[in-house]
Protein backbone atom coordinates (compact mmCIF):
# COMPACT_ATOMS: atom_id res chain seq x y z
CA UNK A 1 0.00 0.00 0.00
CA UNK A 2 1.46 3.37 -1.03
CA UNK A 3 1.93 5.80 1.87
CA UNK A 4 -0.37 8.80 2.11
CA UNK A 5 1.33 12.01 0.95
CA UNK A 6 0.82 14.93 3.33
CA UNK A 7 1.84 18.55 2.73
CA UNK A 8 3.28 20.07 5.94
CA UNK A 9 2.74 23.75 6.74
CA UNK A 10 5.05 25.15 9.44
CA UNK A 11 4.39 27.70 12.18
CA UNK A 12 5.24 31.41 12.31
CA UNK A 13 9.00 32.13 12.48
CA UNK A 14 9.77 28.62 11.21
CA UNK A 15 10.48 27.28 7.72
CA UNK A 16 10.11 23.93 5.98
CA UNK A 17 13.57 22.69 6.95
CA UNK A 18 13.19 23.57 10.61
CA UNK A 19 9.69 22.10 10.79
CA UNK A 20 11.04 18.90 9.26
CA UNK A 21 13.63 18.72 12.06
CA UNK A 22 11.05 19.43 14.74
CA UNK A 23 8.69 16.72 13.48
CA UNK A 24 11.29 13.94 13.30
CA UNK A 25 9.46 11.94 15.96
CA UNK A 26 6.18 12.20 14.03
CA UNK A 27 7.85 11.05 10.80
CA UNK A 28 9.26 8.06 12.68
CA UNK A 29 5.88 7.31 14.27
CA UNK A 30 4.03 7.31 10.92
CA UNK A 31 6.79 6.33 8.49
CA UNK A 32 5.17 3.17 7.10
CA UNK A 33 1.88 4.94 6.46
CA UNK A 34 2.68 8.55 5.59
CA UNK A 35 5.17 10.56 3.55
CA UNK A 36 5.47 14.09 4.98
CA UNK A 37 6.44 16.74 2.40
CA UNK A 38 7.55 20.17 3.67
CA UNK A 39 7.31 23.64 2.15
CA UNK A 40 8.32 27.11 3.35
CA UNK A 41 6.12 30.18 3.57
CA UNK A 42 6.94 33.01 1.13
CA UNK A 43 7.00 35.86 3.68
CA UNK A 44 10.23 36.85 5.47
CA UNK A 45 9.78 37.58 9.17
CA UNK A 46 11.73 40.41 10.79
CA UNK A 47 12.89 40.52 14.42
CA UNK A 48 10.43 39.91 17.24
CA UNK A 49 8.99 36.58 18.27
CA UNK A 50 5.58 34.97 18.54
CA UNK A 51 6.15 31.23 18.65
CA UNK A 52 8.83 30.35 21.18
CA UNK A 53 10.35 27.10 19.96
CA UNK A 54 10.21 24.04 22.17
CA UNK A 55 11.73 20.62 21.86
CA UNK A 56 9.39 17.98 20.50
CA UNK A 57 8.87 16.50 23.95
CA UNK A 58 8.08 19.94 25.37
CA UNK A 59 11.08 19.89 27.70
CA UNK A 60 12.11 23.49 27.03
CA UNK A 61 13.71 25.54 24.28
CA UNK A 62 14.65 23.70 21.12
CA UNK A 63 16.67 25.01 18.17
CA UNK A 64 16.36 28.73 17.50
CA UNK A 65 13.85 29.76 14.83
CA UNK A 66 16.00 32.69 13.64
CA UNK A 67 17.52 30.85 10.69
CA UNK A 68 15.46 32.24 7.78
CA UNK A 69 12.18 32.66 9.69
CA UNK A 70 9.04 32.73 7.55
CA UNK A 71 5.33 33.44 7.99
CA UNK A 72 2.02 32.89 6.18
CA UNK A 73 0.46 36.31 6.88
CA UNK A 74 1.05 39.38 9.03
CA UNK A 75 -1.65 40.68 11.39
CA UNK A 76 0.17 44.04 11.73
CA UNK A 77 0.44 45.39 8.19
CA UNK A 78 2.77 48.28 9.12
CA UNK A 79 5.19 46.35 11.32
CA UNK A 80 5.00 43.19 9.14
CA UNK A 81 4.55 41.12 12.29
CA UNK A 82 2.07 38.56 13.57
CA UNK A 83 0.27 37.79 16.81
CA UNK A 84 -2.52 35.21 17.01
CA UNK A 85 -4.40 37.38 19.51
CA UNK A 86 -4.17 40.63 17.50
CA UNK A 87 -7.52 41.95 16.26
CA UNK A 88 -7.09 43.51 12.82
CA UNK A 89 -9.23 44.64 9.89
CA UNK A 90 -6.98 43.23 7.22
CA UNK A 91 -3.78 41.22 6.93
CA UNK A 92 -0.78 41.24 4.64
CA UNK A 93 0.64 38.39 2.55
CA UNK A 94 -2.15 35.81 2.60
CA UNK A 95 -2.64 35.84 -1.19
CA UNK A 96 1.09 35.24 -1.73
CA UNK A 97 0.95 32.29 0.67
CA UNK A 98 -2.07 30.73 -1.06
CA UNK A 99 -0.19 31.09 -4.37
CA UNK A 100 2.85 29.36 -2.81
CA UNK A 101 0.70 26.40 -1.74
CA UNK A 102 -0.88 26.26 -5.20
CA UNK A 103 2.63 26.04 -6.68
CA UNK A 104 3.71 23.37 -4.15
CA UNK A 105 0.66 21.27 -5.08
CA UNK A 106 1.49 21.59 -8.79
CA UNK A 107 5.20 20.83 -8.39
CA UNK A 108 5.35 18.42 -5.42
CA UNK A 109 1.80 17.02 -5.44
CA UNK A 110 -0.60 15.42 -5.60
CA UNK A 111 -1.26 15.24 -1.87
CA UNK A 112 -3.77 13.17 0.06
CA UNK A 113 -3.83 15.50 3.04
CA UNK A 114 -2.42 18.61 4.64
CA UNK A 115 -0.94 19.15 8.12
CA UNK A 116 -0.39 22.53 9.75
CA UNK A 117 1.18 23.72 12.99
CA UNK A 118 0.11 26.89 14.85
CA UNK A 119 -0.13 29.75 12.32
CA UNK A 120 0.25 27.02 9.70
CA UNK A 121 -2.76 25.17 11.17
CA UNK A 122 -4.85 28.34 11.10
CA UNK A 123 -3.75 28.74 7.46
CA UNK A 124 -4.72 25.11 6.70
CA UNK A 125 -8.29 25.88 7.87
CA UNK A 126 -8.36 28.75 5.35
CA UNK A 127 -6.98 26.55 2.56
CA UNK A 128 -9.67 23.93 3.27
CA UNK A 129 -12.30 26.66 3.09
CA UNK A 130 -10.96 27.86 -0.28
CA UNK A 131 -11.01 24.25 -1.52
CA UNK A 132 -14.63 23.72 -0.47
CA UNK A 133 -15.68 27.06 -1.97
CA UNK A 134 -14.14 25.74 -5.22
CA UNK A 135 -11.84 28.77 -5.40
CA UNK A 136 -8.69 26.65 -5.73
CA UNK A 137 -9.18 23.93 -8.37
CA UNK A 138 -5.59 22.68 -7.80
CA UNK A 139 -6.43 21.64 -4.23
CA UNK A 140 -7.81 18.15 -3.60
CA UNK A 141 -6.92 17.47 0.04
CA UNK A 142 -8.93 14.59 1.49
CA UNK A 143 -8.13 15.34 5.14
CA UNK A 144 -6.50 17.94 7.38
CA UNK A 145 -4.46 17.67 10.58
CA UNK A 146 -4.33 20.90 12.59
CA UNK A 147 -1.85 21.08 15.47
CA UNK A 148 -2.28 24.08 17.83
CA UNK A 149 -4.69 25.67 15.36
CA UNK A 150 -6.86 28.74 15.97
CA UNK A 151 -9.35 31.06 14.28
CA UNK A 152 -7.73 34.12 12.75
CA UNK A 153 -8.66 37.32 14.60
CA UNK A 154 -8.47 39.31 11.35
CA UNK A 155 -11.87 40.67 10.34
CA UNK A 156 -11.24 40.05 6.64
CA UNK A 157 -10.67 36.34 7.35
CA UNK A 158 -14.03 35.69 9.01
CA UNK A 159 -15.60 34.55 5.71
CA UNK A 160 -13.44 31.41 6.00
CA UNK A 161 -15.58 30.36 8.98
CA UNK A 162 -19.06 31.09 7.55
CA UNK A 163 -19.88 27.49 6.65
CA UNK A 164 -18.65 24.43 8.59
CA UNK A 165 -16.16 22.49 6.45
CA UNK A 166 -16.89 18.93 5.36
CA UNK A 167 -13.25 17.81 5.10
CA UNK A 168 -12.38 15.23 7.81
CA UNK A 169 -10.03 16.83 10.34
CA UNK A 170 -7.90 15.87 13.33
CA UNK A 171 -7.28 18.71 15.80
CA UNK A 172 -4.28 18.25 18.08
CA UNK A 173 -3.47 20.61 20.95
CA UNK A 174 -1.59 20.75 24.24
CA UNK A 175 -3.32 21.51 27.52
CA UNK A 176 -0.23 23.43 28.68
CA UNK A 177 0.27 25.39 25.43
CA UNK A 178 1.22 28.96 26.41
CA UNK A 179 1.53 30.26 22.82
CA UNK A 180 -1.86 29.08 21.51
CA UNK A 181 -3.88 28.22 24.64
CA UNK A 182 -6.12 25.19 24.17
CA UNK A 183 -9.30 27.30 24.33
CA UNK A 184 -8.16 29.05 21.11
CA UNK A 185 -7.80 25.65 19.41
CA UNK A 186 -11.23 24.59 20.69
CA UNK A 187 -12.77 27.73 19.14
CA UNK A 188 -11.78 26.39 15.70
CA UNK A 189 -13.61 23.05 16.15
CA UNK A 190 -17.13 24.29 15.15
CA UNK A 191 -15.67 25.31 11.76
CA UNK A 192 -15.29 21.59 10.91
CA UNK A 193 -18.22 19.17 10.75
CA UNK A 194 -16.11 16.01 11.00
CA UNK A 195 -13.62 17.05 13.69
CA UNK A 196 -11.69 14.55 15.78
CA UNK A 197 -9.65 15.75 18.76
CA UNK A 198 -6.33 14.59 20.21
CA UNK A 199 -5.21 16.43 23.33
CA UNK A 200 -1.87 15.98 25.07
CA UNK A 201 -0.62 17.26 28.42
CA UNK A 202 2.28 19.26 26.94
CA UNK A 203 2.89 22.65 25.37
CA UNK A 204 3.42 24.16 21.92
CA UNK A 205 4.76 21.31 19.80
CA UNK A 206 3.64 18.43 17.57
CA UNK A 207 3.15 15.42 19.87
CA UNK A 208 4.45 12.08 18.65
CA UNK A 209 4.76 9.78 21.64
CA UNK A 210 3.78 6.13 21.26
CA UNK A 211 0.61 6.97 23.25
CA UNK A 212 -0.55 9.13 20.31
CA UNK A 213 0.20 6.59 17.56
CA UNK A 214 -3.20 4.87 17.64
CA UNK A 215 -5.19 8.11 17.28
CA UNK A 216 -3.10 9.25 14.30
CA UNK A 217 -3.28 5.82 12.68
CA UNK A 218 -7.03 5.37 13.22
CA UNK A 219 -7.65 8.77 11.65
CA UNK A 220 -5.34 8.13 8.67
CA UNK A 221 -6.67 4.59 8.09
CA UNK A 222 -9.85 6.07 6.65
CA UNK A 223 -7.93 7.43 3.66
CA UNK A 224 -5.62 4.52 2.80
UniProtKB/TrEMBL annotation:
<dbReference type="GO" id="GO:0005737">
    <property type="term" value="C:cytoplasm"/>
</dbReference>
<feature type="region of interest" description="Disordered">
    <location>
        <begin position="45"/>
        <end position="65"/>
    </location>
</feature>
<dbReference type="GO" id="GO:0005634">
    <property type="term" value="C:nucleus"/>
</dbReference>
<dbReference type="GO" id="GO:0032526">
    <property type="term" value="P:response to retinoic acid"/>
</dbReference>
<dbReference type="InterPro" id="IPR029058">
    <property type="entry name" value="AB_hydrolase_fold"/>
</dbReference>
<protein>
    <recommendedName>
        <fullName>Esterase OVCA2</fullName>
        <ecNumber>3.1.1.1</ecNumber>
    </recommendedName>
</protein>
<dbReference type="Pfam" id="PF03959">
    <property type="entry name" value="FSH1"/>
</dbReference>
<comment type="function">
    <text>Exhibits ester hydrolase activity with a strong preference for long-chain alkyl ester substrates and high selectivity against a variety of short, branched, and substituted esters. Is able to hydrolyze ester bonds within a wide range of p-nitrophenyl derivatives (C2-C14) in vitro, with a strong preference toward substrates of &gt;8 carbons.</text>
</comment>
<comment type="similarity">
    <text>Belongs to the LovG family.</text>
</comment>
<dbReference type="GO" id="GO:0106435">
    <property type="term" value="F:carboxylesterase activity"/>
</dbReference>
<keyword id="KW-0719">Serine esterase</keyword>
<dbReference type="InterPro" id="IPR050593">
    <property type="entry name" value="LovG"/>
</dbReference>
<feature type="domain" description="Serine hydrolase">
    <location>
        <begin position="3"/>
        <end position="215"/>
    </location>
</feature>
<keyword id="KW-0378">Hydrolase</keyword>
<dbReference type="InterPro" id="IPR005645">
    <property type="entry name" value="FSH-like_dom"/>
</dbReference>
Amino acid sequence: MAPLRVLCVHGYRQNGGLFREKTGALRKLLKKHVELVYMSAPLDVRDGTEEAPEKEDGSGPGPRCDDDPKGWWFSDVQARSFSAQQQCKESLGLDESVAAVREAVKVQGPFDGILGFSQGAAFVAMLCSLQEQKQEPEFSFRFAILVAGFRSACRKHQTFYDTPLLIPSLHVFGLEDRVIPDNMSRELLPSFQDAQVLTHPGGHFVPAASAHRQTYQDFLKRFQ
